[in-house]
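Provenance

Sequences were taken from public entries as deposited. Structures were produced by running a predictor on each sequence independently, with no templates supplied. The record for TetR/AcrR family transcriptional regulator from Streptomyces albidoflavus is shown for reference.
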Amino acid sequence: MPQNTPGNPEGDGTPVPRRLLAAATRLFADQGYDRTSVQEIVEAAGVTKGALYHYFGSKEDLLQEVYARLLRLQQERLDMYAGSQEPVEERLRAAAADVVVTTIENLDDASIFFRSMHQLSPEKNKQVRAERRRYHERFRALVEEGQRAGVFTRDIPADLVVDYHFGSVHHLSTWYRPDGPLTPQQVATHLADLLLRALTHPGA
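Predicted structure for TetR/AcrR family transcriptional regulator:
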């Protein structure tokens, strides 16, 4: 097995951190985080244990990064939608649909995290929860903006609306199948429509 040096990609040109994350994601999804050993990860990635500990420090760090990379992507896209000049209802619709599509496109990452989050240390768990809270608060701010403007009803608290939508998102990994009858965009459109209907003024 070729030796790794920090910063150098493996033979196929893929950077070592990406190889490790890909291998860990596949193994965590197939057999579970707690049943996957560091040795299995490095063998699947074709790297040494030294490379893993250089980039991630521990198996737990890999678990945290599996979800963190998805959350970073979703945060960037939410910030883009929220900061656009579109009407608030269109910004919220786009953001609500996007989190569904990106979750489905990274379903292994999401399902691994929700199955294994309890296995993170208290400190790492706290970090992840803080990052998720930042995302949810940004999303909730769109709902509150529309409520203040009179576009959305105030009959339902913004917190409840956000929990309603993300409850649906978090359950995607339990039922969505790529070979099922709905495409990711179709699921996203349906769930975004449900969210906007919940915020529609009665009789509108």
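Confidence is low (pLDDT under 50) at residues 1-10.
The chain is about 70% helix and 0% strand.
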